Amino acid sequence: MFFSIIIPVYNRPEELHELLNSIRLQSHTDFEVIVIEDGSQVDSKAVIASFNSSFSCQYLTQENTGQGFARNHGMTKATGDFFVILDSDVILPPDYLKVLFEAIRTRGLDAFGGPDAAAEDFSTLQKAMDFAMTSFWTTGGIRGNLSDPGKYQARGFNMGVSREVFEETGGFVDANQGEDIEWSIRIKKAGFKLELVQEAYVYHKRKNTLTSFASQAFSFGRNRVNVSRYHPEAIKAVHLLPTAFMLFCLSMLLMSFSATILFRIEIQIFFLWSVMLVFSSITENKSIKVGLMSWLTSVVQLCSYGLGLPYEWVRKTFKG
Hints:
Elements: E1 3-9, H1 13-24, E2 31-38, H2 45-49, E3 57-62, H3 67-77, E4 82-86, E5 90-91, H4 96-107, E6 111-113, E7 116-117, H5 124-134, E8 158-162, H6 163-169, H7 179-189, E9 194-196, E10 202-204, H8 210-230, H9 241-255, H10 261-285, H11 288-319
Parallel strand pairs: 1-2, 1-4, 2-3, 6-9, 7-10
Antiparallel strand pairs: 4-8, 5-10, 6-8
Helix pairs in contact: 5-11, 8-11, 9-10, 9-11, 10-11
Protein name: Glycosyltransferase
Pfam families: Glycos_transf_2
EC number: 2.4.-.-
């Protein structure tokens, strides 16, 4: 067995069904699936049973401990050589495992991280949220330097490690606060080869409303500070850009009452950024509607992340 696919789930049987169906359609078939029910009130037992004839699937249940520790539980029960970790709200393209297998074999990878994308049937808001999370014009621009895939820090919705990596590093040390970034840093410090595999993308079917999307982005900013508890170097100047953007927006609001030259300059800069972002989204998604919605989701995402990081930094500082 080469791949063990690890999926923690919490009260989401419908989206798990979509993920398992996409796994059933994989062109590469040397895999097993391990689903860890992390203290759900609405379980996925019936969903798992409907795929029993399609592939090998273990169904584990536990008290709610958070997705990081649920993944650890799954990996301790895995029989494969390489563990693929997925969130339950993703869908795999048919050649996902085939592409990943080739990348691991030809590039000698010990671990990997993959990007996310929006499928054609996603809603306007889902496509706009995906753009905000992946675009060069937002925090997507600091997720990984494609010219150097070795600088990428894997995200838990689409990442994987060899059995050796898990056994030597011990897996996740936090339940759900940037635990994937922390482990990525620790994997590299242990001397293992972790890189971005650009072609191993997943369709990330986020169920967020705009409000919950803002809350999620806020937590991402906080999580970066949490990671710095383990790795002080985790916060770099580039991670402060969303906070700079948020302060820039606040400055525009304050300056609007005085109509100074500085305000006119700020408006021009903001307008130029907005035009480039919307044009980029329209080009990528081939939809004016998605392009305009992408402007809103990008502003929300940047400002929320930008607020979350200093909030947690101040909180951490005063808590000692």
